[in-house]
Amino acid sequence: MQVFQQLGEHDYEKVVFCNDNDSGLRAIIAIHDTTLGPALGGVRMLPYATEAEALEDVLRLSRGMTYKAAISGVDLGGGKSVIIGDARTGKNPALLRAMGRFVNTMAGEYIAGQDIGTNSHDMAVIRGATRHVACVNESAGGAGDPSRTTAYGVSCGIRAVLKATNGSDSIGGRHIVVQGLGNVGYALAKFCHEAGARLTVSEIYQPLAKKAASELGAEVVDADAIYDVECDVFSPNSIGGVINDDTIARLRCKAVAGGANNILAEPRHGDELMQRGIVYAPDYLVNSGGLIRCQEEVFGRPTEDFTIYSKVTQIFDQTLQVIALAEELGISTAAAADWMAEERIAGAG
């Protein structure tokens, strides 16, 4: 009964539990809302400690995709899927094909893409069992990895919060802290480095941390120490929930803008950032670049970088609009972004 209460609270349309004994697949597909179109969302593979933890994650992520599509003007709905398992040791073609068969049973209501623990090559394998997939690698005829496009969008969000806090959107000479150097985080750090930023980074996978130090001149700090670094912008680009009761008082930044999903552990943390005078660029807005790219692939439109980047650049203006609306209404930027997204969904509905 508690699960159904959770689903009803945010009007989830469909949640499917997937089990395949032959491949060992255990997965959950969640569709939150299809008002704007079929639900698109990545396939995340993590070694969740419990099935309840996996369910909580897929529900939060699928709802976030609804809001991401709505606020970015994308004509798609919100969905997500999670595979319970270690992507480094448990991922194999049989498991991915089984996932594709479950996606196919959704008859186009859900379109799979890449996420943490999966990549564009995995999407090509999944496409062997269903045509309802995006982010397929270029050698298989797809648009490829959207991570760099996502990172570019986050850089646009960073420029917007710099404009709001410093009066200039220039990244040059600013101190940017990047938490997590995965596909998005490293590409973002590279964008900021090329723009002349001073970088401080944290990354648990030491070869990536050393690469950032040697290639980008970044200062590397321990994972926990990253919250205490004084900077212009703190950019989380790994797991969600990093702005929480334990970390928020430690932040020494003027703004937060990152590519991770669900950066705020709870909605109230958006209010707390506002009370502390820290400008927050809502994560589902600034990290929507990858979704914008995937939309073009889904609808068969050109996906060349120039075409896509010209569309992703809108994130700069949209972030400033959210900040302005929040100031006008006296609410947090998180609440203002939610309001804008819900208005678009309501209008379409």
Uncertain stretches: none
Strand order of the largest sheet: 8-7-6-9-10-11
What are the secondary-structure elements, in order, as H or E?
HEEEHEHEHHEHEHEEEHEHHHHH
Mean pLDDT: 94
Tell me roughly what share of residues is in helical segments: 40-55%
- State the oligomer: single chain
Give me the number of helical elements: 13
Strand content: 15-25%
What is the CA-based Rg, rounded? 19 Å
Number of beta strands? 11
Distance between termini? Answer: 28 Å
Structure description:
The chain has 349 residues and is α/β, with parallel strands linked by helices. 44% of the residues lie in helices and 18% in strands. It is built from 13 helices and eleven strands. It has a six-stranded parallel sheet with strand order 8-7-6-9-10-11, with helices on both faces. A five-stranded mixed sheet has the order 1-2-4-3-5, sandwiched between helices. Helix 2 links the parallel strand 3 (39-46) and strand 4 (77-84). Helix 3 crosses helix 4, helix 5 (147-166) runs parallel beside helix 11 and helix 10 (289-298) packs across helix 11. The longest helix has 21 residues, at 51-71. The chain is globular and about 55 Å long.
